[in-house]
Every structure is written in C-alpha cells, then in structure tokens.
Model the fold of this input.
Amino acid sequence: MLRWLSQKIRSGLAKTKGVFAGVFDLLRGKGKVDQAFLDELEKRLYLADVGTQATTQIVERVRQAFRDKEITGEVEAFVQQQLRELLGNEDRGIRWSATRPTVILIAGVNGSGKTTSIAKLAKYLQDQGKKVLLAACDTFRAAAVEQLTVWAQRLGCDIVKQQQGANPAAVAFDACERAKARGYDVLIVDTAGRLHTQTHLMKELEKIHNVVARQIPGAPHEVLLVLDATTGQNALAQAEQFSKSVHCTGIILTKLDGTAKGGAIFTIKQKLGLPVKFVGVGEQLDDLEPFDPEAFVAALFEK
Ligand SMILES: Nc1nc2c(ncn2[C@@H]2O[C@H](COP(=O)(O)OP(=O)(O)OP(=O)(O)O)[C@@H](O)[C@H]2O)c(=O)[nH]1
Done:
C-alpha cells in the first residue's frame, strides 16, 4: 500500500526522480534479463548515486532471481524491494526518555544545514505540543549563536547561550540545569561543525556529550548527524569518519530538494548502520519531514 507522502517531499524529490527515471524506464522495457540488461541496470543505478556496493548487490540479486527470464513487473517490484531493504526497517521515531527532558545532540560539518535543521526540528516538536529548549553550544563560529537566536525568536522558543568563544561544555551544563528545573520536554543541543581532522572540536563534542550524560540520566537520547544530500556519496565518506569519533543514533539528510543525488540515501544505512530519521526538503521551518522508506521508494518510482 502506498503510504502518504507530503507534496513537499514529492516536489522536493523531482531532481532525484529525474535520474531514477533511467532505472524504471529500463525496468518497464521489453526483452530479457540478459547480460546487456544487467550491465545497463548497473550503470543506471550507479548514475542515480545509489553507490557501488549497493548497486552491485542489487544487480547480483536480480541476476540470481531473473537470469534469462522475461522483463516483467516482477523485476521492478523486486528492485523496489531491494531498495527498501537497503533503507532498513527499524523504528525511526525519536527515542523519548521516560523522564523529562529528552536530550537531542545535533552534530555535523559546517554548511550541512545543521542550524536550519535544529530550527525545523524544534518547530516539528513544538507542533506536537512539546516544550523545547535550545542550547547554543556552537560557540566556535561567530555567527552560529546569533543565527540560532534568530530562529529561537521566530519559534518563540527559549535558548541558553553565552558569548562567542565561551566554553561549550559550560553552556551545555547551564542548558541541562534549566531544562530540568523548568520542565522542558526536549533539549536540543547545537554543536560546532567539525571535521574529523579538527581534533580539538571532536574533543569538545565529547565534553558536551559527557556533561549532558552526567547531568541527565540516559542523555543524550539521540545524537543526530546532519548530512547534506547535495554532496551525494561524499557526504557518506565524511559521515563515516565522523561516526568513528562520535556515537550517532540517526541522520538528518538535508537539501534533498536541491539535488539529483538523493539516491545516496540508499547507502547510508549500509555504510554507516544508521537510519535516516528526518529529511530536509527546503529552507523554511516546515520543510522537515520524518523519513518513510516505503513512501520514499514508491514516490521515486511514480510516473
Ligand atoms: N534547499 C534547502 N536548503 C537548506 C536545507 N537545509 C538547510 N538549507 C540551507 O543551507 C544553508 C546552510 O544551512 P545552515 O543551517 O546555516 O548550515 P550549518 O550547517 O549550520 O552551517 P554553518 O551555519 O555554516 O555552520 C542555508 O542557506 C540553509 O537555508 C534544505 O533542506 N533544503
């Protein structure tokens, strides 16, 4: 059954659908599942940014299941099933803490859409009636605190912050205290964008992590890594490095609307072992959606 998929994601997926058209045109063609067909399938999946490993796996399974048989709707259904499997079927909801507050740490490199995603996530949770507190722990970059403050004002959401250059672990400490004392449901913690080469920033993230864990039992309940879909397979390489240093629980994949490389989503689970929990499909506050693999694959294959 085709599940509901918002119009935003549908239109956001236009570019990625454009390249996937190559895949489904082939699967809806005539002829046999012969070597030429398999080679072509491999090429088209690869061009759709599905990634080498996942592409090879799908083509091999199609070969085993349909070798020399006629191309029918069954082959397409099989490929769709393979793509769904690559996305995994675990629960993608936020892991709520039994007691308030639930703490969500947000990590990711600069420019990935981290700050915007925090604002969107806050809005999404506010819309569910949650009382949200933001912690501006990206004290490393001049504009970061400012940017988050502007979003907080627009959202009517409280924020804990200090001057640029302040100790981010101290901001995290204050934020935890405030969240506990005033009964916030969720504390969303922004952290400085960092690359694996920036060791001091990695250490800083660890410190924030430790402070939060000490202040609130079981925290952080989520560590979401923000990845920019427009960088395709490169986002994966970056994330692989990243998740070696920090234990992440899920991915927010941003800018899906601006790219034809959305196929990269199929390798995230396989390479990182992490579920995509949310996707960003625009620059506005409402442009964040919980990720639904079934609906996603169905939408990709819609004419
Ligand atoms: N089209 C589109 N643009 C997005 C999306 N998410 C974020 N952006 C844009 O991407 C740019 C970078 O977003 P930020 O949220 O500032 O990114 P950041 O990771 O915090 O980066 P720094 O501010 O450089 O640390 C902004 O222009 C955002 O409006 C999305 O889902 N779709």
About this structure: The domain at 1-93+291-302 is CATH 1.20.120.140 (Four Helix Bundle (Hemerythrin (Met), subunit A)). Residues 108, 110-116, 141, 144, 193, 254-255, 257-258, 280-283, 287 surround guanosine-5'-triphosphate (CB under 6 Å).
